[in-house]
Amino acid sequence: MxxxxxxxxxxxxxxxxxxxxxxYQVNKTxxxxxxxxxxxxxxxxxxxxxxxxxxxxTAKLAExxxxxxxxAMALYHASILTEEKQxxxxxxxxxxxxxxxxxxxxxxxxxxxxxxxxxxxxITIELMNSQNAGSEKFLKAENVKLTSKKxxxxxxxxxxxxxxxxxxxxxxxxxxxxxxxxLRTAL
Length: 187
Description:
This protein has helices at 2-17, 67-84, 141-153, 158-185; strands spanning 26-30, 44-49, 54-61, 89-106, 111-128, 138-140. It is of the alpha+beta class. This is Lipoprotein.
């Protein structure tokens, strides 16, 4: 009974915390590549240094975040980092995005329940000046900063928020069903 009450309280608190978008904030910076999965990163931006001028930037948002906003946040941070390191711009070497779900597993009933979820965007960039870009698509930091900031600051309507939340819940529930089935068939 206590465990059920604790779980219900945790779910309610988690749901209450996700009603406002995750603000742009750098929550983790490393001088080496991390082997962590984006689900293990804190909400916000994580920056990993891969080489002298190479970085991997991950933006992780909560339940009401959109893939578009996660990409914009990663690009916004890339442009700020570029300016801090005194480069003109950057080239995107790799990009991917996805969604994540945090789940609770009940060993007694062999079921998995998803508590919350969100989206993430990850880009690997190389900082450089325009004359070094060659044939690669060069992104000028100041231009990227302006356009990505507009996307990040866009306020979604109640209808758009409801759609995003419903879409995320459906995705996480489907993942929970798959994990429950795998868990039960493994026995």
